[in-house]
Specification:
Elements: E1 2-9, H1 13-31, E2 36-43, E3 49-55, H2 58-65, H3 68-79, E4 82-89, H4 96-105
Antiparallel strand pairs: 1-3, 1-4, 2-3
Length: 107
């Protein structure tokens, strides 16, 4: 899984609202792309704008980054006064079997 995590700040509350509006415009189209697990955008209590995309594979996120829709996302990022963009690559996912494994090994 790959997670795109974007955090933006605007110069004012109104700017932050405009940024989140631009990102929320991205959500529906992104959610229907092949490989998209989740996509959401919201305005935090501190007027920080948050945007997250989860993708099934690296190939899916690579296709996303090369798309025209991603270019639109970058335009919103560039409009922020401060932007943090991160791609988190998760190489393994485990469920309850991990809990059992750890608890069995602990004396």
């Amino acid at each position: 899984m790959v997670r795109l995590n974007v955090t933006l700040n605007g110069a004012s509350l109104r700017d932050a609202e405009n940024l989140v509006e631009g990102l929320q415009f991205q959500v529906p189209g992104t959610q229907i792309e092949a490989g998209c697990i989740a996509c959401t955008a919201w305005l935090g209590a501190d007027s920080t704008v948050h945007y997250v995309e989860d993708w099934a594979t690296e190939a899916d996120i690579r296709r996303r980054v090369l798309s025209e829709r991603f270019t639109s996302l970058l335009a919103v990022v560039e409009a922020a006064t401060k932007a943090d963009v991160q791609f988190d690559f998760v190489t393994e996912r485990r469920g309850l079997e991990y809990v059992f494994e750890v608890r069995e090994q602990t004396p």
